[in-house]
Design goal:
The protein is α+β, with helices and mostly antiparallel strands and 188 residues long. It contains four helices and six strands, in the order αβββααβββα. Helix 1 crosses helix 2, helix 1 packs antiparallel against helix 3 and helix 1 packs antiparallel against helix 4.
Length: 188
Amino acid sequence: MESQATITYNRIIGPEYISILVKYADKHLLPKPEFTIIQSAPLYKATLTLRDWLNNEPEAVFTSNYVNSKSVAKINVAELGINYLKEASEDEGIVWSDLDFDYVGIMHRWTQVNGIDPPVYEIEEAATKSKSGTVEFIATLLLRIQDQPYEFRAPFAAPSKAKAKMVAAYFAFTTFSEYERIDDDVNE
């Protein structure tokens, strides 16, 4: 049986893997990723085919392990596809930021899944400027869980307000998801 942290992680992060692959294909005018679900009652596995943009031939095919859920199988195989694209980026010039998660959106979904009010972000100009002299920003994510306030200040400045929010959201989400995994290990 899957732990609560794994279930929560799949509900929050999982859709991002699929979304990133589709957005990446759209942005780069590539054929859409093709997912196929294979059932071997009561388990499922998924295959993902990424096609070459020149001749539409399969460039890479991935297969997940069997799991209890169609959606988890699809998430698992999408993660394999993203990892493949990240590895290929060194050779083919793929932009890494195309394959990054929207941690602001992920943090918002995390609060929804856990029945918590959405986070509030405070953004300010950093005390120092970048090497090129442009203004940078630091964000702080504020969250209240069971009347307990939490504050996550980004550990470094970013070149835009949006990226500063992303850094703070990433820091908060990774902290809470790690805490959930530890809590699950203790409760097992």
